[in-house]
Amino acid sequence: MAGQQNKKSAPLEKSKLQRDLLLGFVKIHVLYHAAQEAIYGAGISAELEEHGYHLSWGTLYPLLHNLEAAGFLAREEQVVDGKVRKYYRITELGKEALDEARSKALELVNEISVPDSVPVGPE
Ligand SMILES: [Zn+2]
Question: Which of 25, 36, 65, 86 is the most exposed place for a label (fewest CB within 10 A)?
């Protein structure tokens, strides 16, 4: 029926690995902020934008749902200005995951930010 409309899929495929790498960072941001206060989609989206992460709703909402399904976030619904808004808070399990991710992140930063650790060619 419809002709081929795959023109947009090439750049998406090309950046998939890059996206997968960054989504790990995004999840750590989400857990961190959910540990500070209850978060909601639009609020965390704006926060992530400030860090240069541009996530569509089609990416952000499943990510929140997955963290909830994993038991890392707990959802509560509140009515704000007549609209139901879904808030997420970190759970005990989520705190454990965040603690582990934090120490791993620090270890990673320490390793990759030391210039001397970059291998150099033979002199
Ligand atoms: Zn953040």
Answer: 36
